[in-house]
Design goal:
The chain is of the alpha+beta class. It is built from 32 helices and 18 strands. It is globular and about 100 Å long.
């Protein structure tokens, strides 16, 4: 009874332990006020700043982001006011303040897997050990370092989805429906659909495995009439709580680079060109090498990351000694900023390996031997399918085929990411195996499986140790790195350094393999002692826990440690330069800025202060991306060259930049480094003539040839019924009257009426234009902008962004969200009541 209560109320200790571990690992953040410089979060700070300020000012979600790429929907990273699933989200993150996203994400990973394992009836203390180990997977730690929060949330919630399915398979109907619907709701709320996509395949494999099991046990009827309908109901209910998010994302994807392409391939790119979605080369660029997956058991088996410190007494240090002397060599390798790409795998670069722990990997292998077929089959199937996804272009017969035929597959990139889901399955398997050992004890069959798993694991590690010396560990850019770093032109000297780098990698690989062997032997020793009744089960589990957690903690600290934290916060990195301050004196509410000092289309710092021509977002609008690829870089070169030479430009010299109302260009950090563009066309204007074309290719080509101050281009195949009458007179104007990100109002005057171009990005899914309150059709003009036919006289023109996907979808989501919450509370209440009745009977 005492032991039963200890397990029953384990959450009273486990949850505080999760808090403690999260805070301890991120102690510099909590106690010293330091922060990680996380690239994605810094970008997000820039791209979302204007929207955040407008929301504070107006109380209305902006939905449209004016700060980047001349304007685009921000529905993908917006929120729904009054969303009832917010409480589930906050609960999963431990109700920590949003200023501490790192520890709260770590807490989420632990708590989500722990709850999932409880659904599988795993011992709560075993569940806690595996959950903590799981959260320190280096893939998750390096993702935290980069600021990839939504990916980690989706991975954590994936575990609880599987837990909800398990409850249904075990015929715990009410609790199963409640947990599954809740888990699906927060999984989709995380809005990392690539992880969810991979999870769907795992769920299908799990479901098929259970279908087969029910058939074998004569329970097929129950599975078909109760499990499947209730599972679909639960998943549908959960998904409906995020209808607004799924709907807006699907809507946006059709017009983004993940949607259908409108232009023909550029010369030389025909073989890589797809009609819809991403190009294959881009989609599969981050594909995990097949052998690279062995980093799951030995972290540096593929060299580690693309920026690693080298050993102070390793082969590279000794080579440096030969050239520069011992003291100088030590000064170089001891410098923490001296880092080399020790990673030599197939991916362009990486922040670190995907290491889930040698001990945890052994426990998973042990589980495959000790578990029954019912549990083993779906674990193997889930691991295989997600690993095969991760190999991407290195398994073309599988992945390229799915890319071409499966709906949605061509929307995603970085297939290596699927190993994040693989690790969820392996962690669950490890917990199930260890839990079964506790429950069945060391009978003859268990001892046999233990020896088999031990032999398989140690045998694999020994093969890796031997194989490390036979692998090609050279990197494609090794020679170039040393030529640039040390100014070496002697081919023989360069070869000596590249050979030393190869030796450094092999030594690093073998060092980590030996480390993994020692950790595995440590676990084998304590388990063997327990099998021989030399050590009790509780001390055994404690030691296994210390070894398992210590294993991953040590490797995780290579990537996020005290030195990783800086005094400068993300907010403080957005510091206005003299150039920014000069531009901000302009009180015009709606002009755009081109920052030529930055990587224009891959940075968001400019967006923090200005409405930028560039920005940072992986899924840009397709048409704007086309403009980036085919027109804007040419014009930027023309502009930069003219400024440098002091030449005067005409409107026609940089037509796209002028029609985008690029009023300022930043050339440096001071006010004197700001170029004011006299040719910027403003917010809207009437044109003298509309050039009619018959295809998107003709349209974008014409954009680079017209003078947009008096010409507009319209694809009449796309808008066959549009009125395109021009009759511009002196004194005609369209003037911006009121501006907010979601609502625009203009005043117009025209003697005879005419066609006006608005320097706002065209997006057909949600923008409604009205003239004097009467809705009118918006035409796509100049490939990316909006055009309207305006009648003669004085008029008020409005643009409002109220997409049905957000408004209608949001109302449905709120309703089903409350139903889901009510169902969860009811299920938990009924479960507690049943437990109390059971306890009373036992007493």
């Amino acid at each position: 009874m005492q032991n039963s209560n200890f397990k029953k109320y384990s959450w009273l200790l486990v949850i505080p332990i999760f808090y403690l571990v999260s805070i301890l690992y991120f102690s510099p953040e909590f106690f010293d006020g330091k922060h990680l410089n996380q690239g994605d979060l810094m970008h997000f700070s820039g791209m979302s700043h204007a929207s955040g300020e407008e929301y504070k000012r107006t109380g209305e979600r902006p939905l449209w982001n004016t700060a980047m790429f001349s304007g685009m929907p921000e529905l993908l990273f917006s929120a729904l006011d009054g969303d009832p699933t917010e409480v589930l989200y906050s609960m999963s993150l431990g109700f920590m303040p949003h200023s501490h996203e790192n520890p709260m994400t770590l807490f989420l990973l632990m708590s989500s897997l722990w709850v999932a394992l409880l659904c599988f009836r795993v011992n709560p203390w075993v569940s806690a050990i595996i959950a903590i180990t799981f959260s320190f997977n280096t893939f998750y730690i390096t993702s935290l370092e980069a600021g990839h929060m939504t990916k980690l949330w989706a991975i954590g919630y994936a575990a609880t989805v599987l837990g909800g399915m398990k409850l249904l398979f075990d015929k715990r109907w009410l609790l199963g429906v409640a947990v599954l619907s809740t888990s699906v709701a927060i999984e989709l709320r995380a809005a990392h659909y690539q992880i969810t996509y991979y999870l769907i395949f795992v769920c299908l494999i799990y479901g098929l495995s259970e279908l087969y099991n029910s058939y074998k046990n004569g329970e097929l009827n129950i599975f078909l009439t109760r499990v499947i309908p209730l599972g679909i109901l639960a998943a549908g209910l959960g998904a409906s709580t995020q209808l607004w998010k799924v709907w807006t994302t699907k809507e946006y994807s059709e017009f983004s680079i993940r949607g259908k392409k409108e232009l023909q391939a550029l010369p030389g790119q025909e073989n890589n060109h797809t009609q819809e979605g991403l190009d294959k080369d881009y989609a599969f660029s981050w594909s995990e090498g097949k052998m690279e997956s062995l980093t799951l058991i030995a972290p540096n088996f593929y060299g580690g990351s693309s920026q690693e410190n080298v050993s102070k007494d390793g082969p590279l240090a000794k080579q440096l000694e030969k050239v520069a002397g011992k003291q100088q060599a030590q000064n170089i390798v001891s410098n923490p900023n001296f880092k080399l790409p020790l990673y030599f795998g197939e991916q362009p670069f990486t922040g670190g390996p995907i290491y889930q722990g040698a001990v945890l990997t052994f426990l998973f292998i042990f589980a495959l031997f000790i578990l029954d077929k019912r549990e083993r089959n779906w674990l193997i199937g889930g691991v295989l399918i997600t690993a095969m996804f991760s190999w991407g272009k290195h398994l073309q017969w599988f992945n390229y085929t799915l890319f071409d035929i499966l709906p949605g597959m061509n929307k995603f990139r970085t297939p290596a990411m699927s190993l994040g889901v693989t690790c969820v399955i392996m962690a669950m398997g490890a917990a199930l195996g260890l839990d079964k050992l506790i429950k069945v004890g060391w009978d003859e069959k268990t001892q046999k499986t233990f020896y088999q798993a031990s032999g398989a694991t140690l045998g694999l590690l020994l093969l890796m140790y031997v194989g490390a010396g036979m692998m090609d560990v050279s990197g494609a850019r090794d020679a170039q790195i040393f030529q640039q770093m040390f100014g070496l032109n002697d081919a023989n000297m360069v070869r000596q350094f590249t050979n030393a780098l190869d030796d450094e990698r092999v030594a690093l690989m073998r060092k980590d393999i030996v480390r993994s062997i020692f950790f595995v032997i440590g676990v084998l020793a304590i388990l063997f002692a327990n099998a021989k009744k030399k050590v009790g089960m509780i001390p055994t589990i404690l030691v296994v826990g210390l070894l398992t957690i210590g294993d991953v903690w040590g490797v995780a600290k290579r990537y996020i440690n005290d030195a990783s934290f800086k005094s400068t916060s993300n907010k403080e990195t957005n510091i206005a330069t003299g150039a920014d301050k000069f531009i901000l004196k302009d009180k015009d509410p709606n002009y755009r800025v081109l920052n030529l000092t930055a990587n224009v289309f891959n940075e968001a710092n400019t967006s923090y202060f200005h409405k930028s021509i560039g920005g940072y977002f992986a899924a840009k609008l397709r048409r704007y991306q086309d403009l980036i690829e085919r027109e804007l870089p040419k014009e930027m070169q023309v502009l930069a060259g003219a400024i440098q030479k002091g030449d005067t430009l005409t409107v026609k010299a940089t037509p796209a930049l002028n029609m985008l109302n690029m009023k300022y260009a930043i050339l440096g950090n001071t006010a004197n480094d700001v170029y004011q563009n006299p040719n910027a066309l403003g917010n809207a204007w009437f044109v003298d003539r509309v050039e009619k074309v018959n295809s998107p290719d003709d349209e974008i080509e014409a954009v680079g040839q017209i003078d947009p101050s008096f010409q507009a281009v319209v694809d009449v195949n796309k808008f066959p019924n549009a009125d395109l009458v021009t009759s511009k007179s002196a004194g005609d104007f369209v003037k911006l009257d009121k501006f907010s990100q979601r609502r625009l109002s203009y005043k117009s005057h025209s003697k005879d009426g005419g066609f006006a171009v608005f320097s706002e990005v065209y997006y057909p899914a949600g923008w409604i234009a009205k003239i004097d309150g009467k809705e009118v059709d918006i035409v796509c003009a100049n490939y990316v902008l909006r055009g309207l036919q305006i009648p003669a006289g004085d008029h008020t023109i409005t643009f409002d962004f109220d997409p049905d996907s957000y408004v209608m979808g949001g109302n449905i989501s709120k309703l089903t969200g409350y139903i889901t919450l009510l169902l969860l509370v009811l299920a938990i209440g009924m479960t507690i009541k049943e437990e109390m009745v059971t306890t009373k009977k036992e007493d």
